[in-house]
Specification:
The protein has five domains: 119 residues, Roll (Archaeosine Trna-guanine Transglycosylase, Chain: A, domain 4), CATH 2.30.130.40; 56 residues, no CATH class; 178 residues, Rossmann fold, CATH 3.40.50.300; 84 residues, Helicase, Ruva Protein, domain 3 (Orthogonal Bundle), CATH 1.10.8.60; 210 residues, Ribosomal Protein S5, domain 2, CATH 3.30.230. The radius of gyration is 51 Å and the shape is elongated. The strands form six sheets. Strands 16, 17, 18, 19, 20, 21, 24, 25 and 26 form a nine-stranded mixed β-sheet that branches. It has a five-stranded mixed beta barrel with strand order 1-3-4-5-6. A five-stranded parallel β-sheet has the order 8-9-12-7-13, sandwiched between helices. The chain is built from 27 helices and 26 strands. By secondary structure, the protein is an alpha/beta fold. It binds adenosine-5'-diphosphate. Adenosine-5'-diphosphate (ADP) binds next to helix 13, helix 18 and helix 20.
Amino acid sequence: MPNNEEKAIRLLPVLPLRGLTAFPEMLIHFDVGRAMSIKALEAAMKDGQVLFLTAQQELKLDEPGPGDLYQVGTICIVKQILRLPGDNIRVLVEGRARAMAHEFIQGEGDPACLFAQVEVLHDEPVTAPERREQALIRTVQDRFDQYAQLAQRVSNDVVVTVASGGQPGYLADFIAQNMAVDYDVKQDILEELDPIRRLTSVIRLLTDEVEILKLENEIQDELKTQIDKNQRDYYLREQIKVIQSELGEQDAAAEAEEYREKVQALKLPQEIEDKLLREVDRMAKMGGATAEGAVIRTYLDSCIELPWGKETKDKLNLERARKVLDRDHYGLEKVKERILEFIAVKALAPDLKGQVLCLVGPPGVGKTSIAKSIAESMGRKYVRLSLGGMRDEADIRGHRKTYIGAMPGRIMAAMRQAGSRNPLMLLDEIDKMGNDFRGDPASAMLEVLDSEQNFAFRDHYLELPFDLSDVLFVTTANDLGTVPRPLLDRMEVIELSSYTEEEKLQIAKRHLLPKQMKKHGLKKTNLSVDDTVLHDIIMGYTREAGVRALEQVLAKLCRRTAKQVADGEATKLTVTAENMEKVLGVARYKDDIVSGRDEVGIVNGLAWTSVGGEMLQVEVSAIEGTGKIEITGNLGTVMKESAQAAVTYVRSRARTLDIDPMFYKNTDLHIHFPEAAIPKDGPSAGITMATAIVSALTDAPVYGNVAMTGEVTLRGRVLPIGGLREKTMAAYRAKMKTVIIPKENESDLQEIEPVVRDNVKFILAEHMDTVMEHAIDFSRRAAKKLEPAGQGEKDALPIPQATAPAATAIRQ
Ligand code: ADP
């Protein structure tokens, strides 16, 4: 180093650097444009070409003052000056020594440059062991190598220089000069006078940079592949378009695009969207006109039309719900109360899922229409699905796509129809679901109703999970006996029972007739039916637990009226007792079907079927013979055995009842239930049969206005039975005065309709003795004689008309 540079303190012109750092022993070049810098350069050129280069702390400042400059900088020699077009000057300088500015002095003139009193700074001696120094040098070389590879902007010369080594301080300066890092970081390295520490800082810096560069490269790669893939897809699609347009199939591409947009608009979960988009691509490849393409299109349509994200907001206002229920339904107080409770719970705990209501009762008592009202009162969409006769699991879950003509199952079809993902779904006649070799629909149903599983219900056709957990399921059944137990366990049962005549009258007057008139376009003035006539219609044309047939009869009435009005025959039809048969045809049921007369060997039994309660007579004939017992009337085994038990009981009591104890040897008994076309079974006709046998054998008449139900044991104990409510209703309808029921059924009397309780006298029997006491008029016992064979049918009673469909099994 020349002597004059080693002078302890010198006054040198200052050239402030923006974003650059000059290191000793390095050549750097830069452009100068600012007036103060040019001035400094000129001053240097006048005095040994020596300059003090130091960085300014703030890049933005155009005219930095002494406080804006770092104190440590580098003393440099100007090697070359090149005037550029404009006012710029390109300068090449060589760093000589680190130096510290003790004082900055403002120069004279305008523009003026800064001068500084600078002192040369020397590196501290290296004190670290040589091995450590070597290790550090190798490390820095290694890191720099990595850095150079990643950074890609480092020239080969630089790499070679670093690789050929040198003093630690020099290496550190050289690397710092050639790295693309911020000037303030470089400044720290410049200010470090301990060469080992300086080198260590550079190693740290390189390590950081390498990590950052690696990450940067990764990000770049990712972006690049993404862009490449997009470009590739785009390119391929464009090619397909061209090919298709050559083949005259451009519609297919446009169609696929349309489907792609539709799928994306649904905002589906990623997994589902991906699957559907794959199908769209397949369709595009196949071409929409091919058979395969058409299959995929149908599939996509099925998926797209499902209410994936659509839902309605629940209106859980009890007052409103009550109003809707009352508006549509007469009576049914208990049922409405239960439904309101249900809605109240929903309002309090909206997230409580998985409640399933099951409405049970005979046909026509309003199960379906109550469900509809629940939907309306809660502001939900309503869909109905009839399960009656469903035997195949595929009905519920659909067929796999591989089947020709496969479709989604009924559940998903119903969801599509509902158009919202939280409708009220009525599953009608869940008790009529069967099963056969094609699988069990009940187990599929179980999955639909189970809140643990139905949030991801998988239809075989759609092959996508669909969330059913927000659907409100309501099921209906006539008879819980045939509902599979696991299904039943998941449902909350609400019972609806038969209507009394009075209720039917009110329902007809307030609901059915106005509804039918409106349906047929009739005004109030067109048709008039007063209460007594309505009552006659109910009694003469219907015999049912609900009001379905009644509604049909009223519809018929409205049709007739509408025809008259349309024909201009009359503007008003008034139905009276006299013209009723003319309008509606001959009444099907006469009041006196059940004779009400006291007869020998004929007893009114009460039966319960899925369509409601019924009165059923048993006839017994005792004929001279050889002790045969004949039982007819399409009876099941339980009922036959029950008949045998009744006979045995009577035999055991023969003496007390003054019956020939040998009757089982010399008398044939024929026990017959009319309406032989209807299958009947169950034990609850036991007391009825026993009473009829005793009456036939003793020739004492049975009261015609007494009906009974109960099982009998061999010793004459009367055992409890089910379906009391419906059975007593049937007795009331048949105008019975007295009904004998088992004592053990006493508690069930609370459930009985008040009208029935008010009009019928109930006898609670524990033993056959009580039954016979109230049913048989022993005082009118004729002189004992047996009918000669062959004459038993002589005064048979008219057989009551069929009241239930032939296929319905009657359980006694
Ligand atoms: P279910 O589903 O029990 O077989 P529906 O709901 O089909 O019976 O009822 C048959 C008809 O009777 C419907 O038109 C219904 O509105 C009407 N209905 C039944 N019960 C009542 C009632 N309590 N009040 C008014 N209408 C009723």
